[in-house]
Specification:
Mean pLDDT: 94
Largest sheet: 8 strands, parallel, barrel
Low-confidence stretches: none
Number of strands: 8
Number of helices: 8
Distance between the termini: 28 Å
Order of helices and strands: EHEHEHEHEHEHEEHH
């Protein structure tokens, strides 16, 4: 699948910390898409396989219904089983090349990158986009150390595939990423911890579009 850079302007990453269960989580996903998220990643670190599989089926169906790209975090087999549009893997997860081998040429493979070397290796392995960061201090991943704007800019200049910043991004600090060559931002709490997810998505999308023009 060819990845339109505009889809990456607002990339939503789920976290069930602010949802009472699968129904509430999927309702938040629907609101995020309605607010402008073009791509959504289902991230579940603590569900067992069967529960993750069932939730992923509903997630993919919802994204398809609403016209958003569906990405599964880490689990390539789940992504394949539910017909997701793609998968996102980290540096410690299944290698990008292996993910590409399993999913085939038509699915999307995203890879986390924290340096130019990692970004170039991901591109060489067949990645379609990069998640670059952590852009700021984040409570979502305690071991994610922020990288500088200069490093983010160096990464985007070193590869031909699009990149989104991730990690600690809020409506207040998002404008600081202007001029880094990014296609958009990936957000977690800035969306899903908000009382009005749709309104938060609309505001973040407008800020991201402004950032990409700067």
């Amino acid at each position: 699948m060819k990845l339109d850079g505009k889809r990456l302007r607002l990339y939503a990453v789920t976290d069930r910390a602010w949802a009472s269960g699968p129904d509430a989580l999927l309702a938040q996903v629907a609101d995020a898409i309605d607010g402008g998220a073009g791509i959504v990643q289902l991230r579940e670190k603590h569900l067992d396989h069967d529960a993750f599989l069932e939730e992923a089926k509903r997630f993919v169906a919802l994204c398809r219904e609403k016209g958003a790209i569906s990405i599964i975090n880490d689990d390539v087999e789940i992504a394949l089983a539910v017909g997701a549009d793609g998968v996102h893997v980290g540096q410690e997860d299944l290698a990008a090349g292996r993910a590409r081998e399993v999913l085939g040429p038509d699915k999307i493979v995203g890879v986390s990158a924290h340096s130019v070397a990692e970004a170039q290796a991901a591109q060489a392995a067949g990645a379609d986009y990069l998640g670059v960061g952590a852009a700021f201090v984040t409570g979502t991943k305690a071991d994610a150390k922020p990288i500088t704007r200069d490093t983010i800019r160096a990464i985007t200049e070193a590869v031909d595939i699009p990149a989104v910043a991730i990690g600690g991004i809020t409506r207040e600090n998002l404008p600081q990423l202007s001029g880094c060559g990014l296609q958009g931002v990936a957000v977690v709490s800035a969306l899903f911890a908000q009382s009005d997810v749709k309104a938060a998505a609309q505001e973040l999308l407008a800020l991201s579009e402004q950032m990409t023009r700067s």
